[in-house]
Write a structure and sequence with these properties.
Strand order of the largest sheet: 1-2-3
Shape: globular
Structural class: alpha+beta
Strand content: 15-25%
Number of helices: 2
Length: 75
């Protein structure tokens, strides 16, 4: 389901919590929303659709790549 983009800076600045297997619907919503905005967006996080979970999706060519609970291991 395509969701509205969250613009509340207070909400967006809050720390997200780990996702679980019960959050697979969030992955689908995030992928649908990214696809809808694909003309000006290559990736988004779950908090951008109002869900404070550690989930991101990004475009790699024509493929949408979801990441659940990603961890940055180097900068």
């Amino acid at each position: 389901m395509i969701k509205s983009i969250m613009t509340d800076e207070n909400f967006l600045s809050k720390k997200s919590i780990p996702a679980t297997k019960d959050d697979l619907n969030v992955v689908n919503d995030l992928m649908d929303t990214l696809e809808y905005h694909s003309d000006n967006c290559v990736g988004m996080a779950a908090n951008m659709i109002g869900i404070s979970k550690n989930i991101i999706v990004f475009k790699l060519g024509n493929t949408s790549v979801p990441m659940i609970n990603p961890v940055i291991i180097s900068k």
